[in-house]
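Q: Joint fold for the lines below.
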Amino acid sequence: MRSGPIRLTDRAHTALRPATAARITDGFWATRRRTNSEVSIPRGPAQLERAGNLANLRAAAAGSGEFAGDFPFQDSDVHKWLEAASWQLAEEPGDGQLMAHIEELTALLASAQDPDGYLQTYYQVVRPDRRWQELGWGHELYCAGHLIQAAIALHRTTGNRQLLDVAERFAVHIHEVFAQRADGVCGHPEIETALVELYRETGERRWLELAAAFVDRRGHGALNVDLNPHLGRAYWQDHTPVREATSVAGHAVRQLYLLAGVADLAAETGAPELRATAERLWDHMVATKTYLTGGVGARHEGEAFGEPYELPPDRAYAETCAAIASIQWSWRMALLTGEAKYSDLIERTLYNGFLSGVGLDGDSWLYVNPLQVREEYEGANEADKAARRTPWFRCACCPPNVMRLLASLPHYLVSGDGQGLQLHQYATGVYEAGGGRVRVATQYPWDGRIEITVEEAPERDWTLSVRIPSWCTGFTATAPNSDAPTGDDPGWLRLRRRWTPGDTLTVNLDLSPRLTGPDPRVDAVRGCLAIERGPLVHCLEGVDQEPGVPFDELTLPDGAELSVRHEPGLLGGVSVVTAAGRRRGAEAVVRLTAVPYHAWANRRPGAMRVWVPRE
Ligand code: FUB
Ligand code: ZN
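A: Joint structure:
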């Protein structure tokens, strides 16, 4: 992948820049991405056909027909699929079938677009008289944002302008309608980050200015939110001026897409207040409103963050899209500041609360990612959307969102700056950044050994930096002539020296399994322990436990002995952690088996828990 979702301008005020080329060639993420490219993405168009999204585009083009689906944002599923397919094309430029699907959907979108540039089938087919009148719930700018991102992806990967032409026509129309309209913001942020990227893609400053206006118009009560007023203004991200916010609030995906846009604006304008806001909110979110899995958005009601430390494991919402949005925002923060903590959260979220969202088959999904399912839970109803994987959803925002993140994943792993290259995540592959190129070989996350071989480096001192995760209490690093690390930036191991092609830095992270206790302020899991290993949160699934002990009677004593074994035949090949547990109130040891959380719900439905009561 030569370019990804973020392409900073030369003037951007960031500490780091994304890699100039990145390719994952093998290992854990290659396997999951192969399923994405061979199963999830190819099946997307048929899913969109079945759900009526494509019929909606045909109806808009024909000027007659019924609208299919329950939500005004049905089009965004098409846009997100197109974005995923476009990033995928970067890796498989010769995939004729994928290109044919992209061209077909691009043509459909072009045919559905109105002469004035407007494009959202719900308002074209159902309520033409209400266009731009229902900004709270209408999702028109949200859909436009996803269209713009898809168009940029296609343009970056293939040079094909067709979708970009459609997106720009729509953007021009939006500019005409909204440049001066004081109440003009969308109830669902998304356009902000897309417009900054459109500015980056085209060099046209008006997109940056419009994005800034959309951010600054929020929080003044101008948004018409007559629908669902009980949700409160935070739901629509109109509760407080963005620069004054002290905590992430309201609908999680809305909040996090907005903050991705805020970070983009901070990067391109250098505005210190925006940067400070993003930093403050991120710290507060991680300290008070983030699950162990990296999942965010605790409440089912309003798909909302909830209060600080309100993190119930069983009623967790933790929408897959919110995990994705958190990763997108955190990567922007990592680039902006150069700090390793942002990539720590990306790692936690990627391996746990994000990846649980897609089944091992690539064709079944979780929308809600709870940390506990009780034994007698029937689940699988539309209201909960939890506990059982589903082929597609009535509100299908998550599946194509997973597809686009996996397809663009190489973009989120490595950065560069004037000094050298920074490895944020460890995946076997080849990465170019900061004027050099490295090859990474690793079995991570099953094994902690990471070999980084320099293939090209400038003929001067150059810094190779590797993030050392905050969970890691022990590691070794060896390189030829074994230099001492340079500097002491938290979370970074840096070696500055003259590198010769072929030099290998080998880092060994201690992956001993560990017991983690919760923050005592999280009432819902006080008195529990979780099992973690490296970046992986593990969970107990009923199906793996010894028969005869009721699932909810299982407990973990402090200091329980933990051991690891790799099971190549289980869940596509995972390492499991076993623990010497107990049945509540009994002395005899009960062996507990904990699989990686991301692999749960891939067998028969049953009980699951991350947090286990402490004996
Ligand atoms: O409103 C569009 C999407 O639907 C949101 O991002 C998701 O949370 C779901 O509500
Ligand atoms: Zn979603």
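Q: Anything notable?
A: The mean pLDDT is 95. Residues 28-51 form the longest helix (24 residues).
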